[in-house]
Amino acid sequence: MINNGMSGSENSQLKFIEALSWQASTEILLELCKDGDLAKRISAMAKATLADVEADVIADEVFRSLNSIDVEELWDNSGKTHYGYQEPTDVAFEMIEDEVRPYIRKMEQYGSLGMKTEEKEYCKGIIIGLLQYGESGSNEFSDWCPDDPFTVAENIIYSWEKNHTIKEIEEIQEVYNSFFADDEAE
């Protein structure tokens, strides 16, 4: 329960809020946003929350997500199908893309909100997570897709280049290049 030094009656009011589903909470919040002054405060709070993007945190999430893919799912989705034969390596590539797609959508959402710095950090996180998985993925699935994380990262960079400045593109490319520069230094 939330306790912000509020009185007992204020805390009892919060019990009702805490009992709501996320959907009901969102509906109420959107209704409150019809009040102009309150909408400005809510928007500022939402923007401050969204602004908390760290590439390393996103990279860890992407890595963990990819590292949790079950190889059984690959085997279930590949092989002989009604439409012919699907190579496990082709299916593995698609599975990586599917796993990363929600992160890409979130990155694009930052861009559509005009939060370019956060969008760029999110992109860096996705790229780093993919490269780390390509380098040190430890699940059995990673054996079926040794180069795919690198290719997916390259595809993201290619898409990124279409809507960003040269400086932004160079920053993202530097993240990608620095990963391989570390390998060459060894």
Write the layout of secondary structure elements.
Elements: H1 8-18, H2 22-32, H3 36-50, H4 55-67, H5 71-77, E1 79-81, E2 84-86, H6 88-112, H7 116-136, H8 148-161, H9 166-185
Antiparallel strand pairs: 1-2
The profile of the biggest β sheet is: 2 strands, antiparallel
Q: Tell me the structural class.
A: mainly alpha
Q: What order do the strands of the largest sheet run in, or round the barrel if closed?
A: 1-2
- As residue ranges, the low-confidence spans are none
Characterise this structure.
The structure is a single chain. This protein is mainly α and 186 residues long. The chain has two domains: 1-50, no CATH class; 52-185, no CATH class. The chain has helices spanning 8-18, 22-32, 36-50, 55-67, 71-77, 88-112, 116-136, 148-161, 166-185, and strands at 79-81, 84-86. A two-stranded antiparallel sheet has the order 1-2. The longest helix is centred in the middle third of the chain and has 25 residues, at 88-112. The mean pLDDT is 88.
